[in-house]
Amino acid sequence: MRGNSSIRRFVVILAIASVAFCSCGEEKKYFKGEIITINRFGKEITLKGIKVDLKDIYEGRPFVCDSFLIFNSFQCLDYYFYAFDLKNGKHVASFCPKGDGPDDYLSCDESVQLIKENGDSKIWVRDYNKQKIHLINITQSIIQEKTICDSIISFEWSKHFMYPLPSVFFLDHGRMLGINQCEEGYSTKDNEYTPRDLYLFKKSFDNMIKEYHLYKSPVISLDDKVKFECFEFYNAVYRIRPNNAQLAIAMKMLGQISIVDVETGEQKNYRMKESLTYPDIEKDIYKSRKYYETMAVDEQYIFALYVDVAMKDCPPPYSSHTIHVLTWNGDPAYKIHVNESIRYMALDTFNHTLYAIDIADNLYSYDISEL
Q1: How far apart are CA 112 and CA 123, in angstroms?
Q2: What is the mean pLDDT of the segment spanning 91-98?
Q3: Which end of the chain is more exposed for a tag (fewer CB within 10 A), N or C?
Q4: Are 275 and 254 contacting, i.e. CB atoms less than 8 angstroms apart?
Q5: Which residues does residue 82 pair with via DSSP β-bridges, in sequence order?
Q6: CA torsion sign, 40 to 43 to 44 to 50?
Q7: pTM for this structure?
């Protein structure tokens, strides 16, 4: 993205000055890696949204692929993916049909990791029910107006985990990075479980070559009157840097973005100063707040939608007028304000545009070329 170099240096200086290390010993027992408190952002800006009209019904989580905006939705009747041409707003293709036939999908999830091969754009999608991962050729699916699947690999998650991996990213040399859900086990004394970890696989999900622990110890609710599923504590959004070197984790129950080095497992946690801590939540679950709701990344920045509302006072769907922008070094570069209350985001990295869906399902675009 373009920007004046002197201004950028000034932003970095401000961002570094706004960061402090957390000295809370009680909180250190939960997280691997240091916790760095963010007191302010380098620059606050307001972006003006331009309404975008699509010429058909759309619903679900969007992502941008080439010049197309693609929605993934489990609520639509016939297909999971619906593609729209951003030049004219027309619906141009639907793919990944729903059903239990040999070419159908019982579930269809992706990690917004686009792959370029031989000039075509592709994406890996997970069918948890059939325990397979499909490499969908988006370019050819749009051109041919039917689902084009270039490859299928086995995804027998139930052999190794109690629950499906909520995110899987594909790296080089046949490696795959997966995130587990919380693995619950019950002892005679208390409810015990393994918090979320990262697993590095090679060529097969039967071949785990490395494990990265994100947490040191589990969070346990101290209020026996409240039934709270353990995985809720670790709910997060995961996005991988386009060069596959780092993973960004935006926490939903903490105002925190963690950045993990994929090769070494080194982890740094960037915490908003106003955020609750796990000890706060353990003592009183009714204090819980929703912080980050969705995230989009490019090679330079992490864009995270910052909600910051009390969960007991504000039922989902969650939306916000505020976007936090961090560099991959953890510098708090920008705090973006928009007039619209948005709940989904997608980045068009080629045209330096942020697309967002507001609470009323209107689509807007924002120019981010000056960041």
Answers
A1: 8
A2: 96
A3: N
A4: yes
A5: 71, 94
A6: negative
A7: 0.90
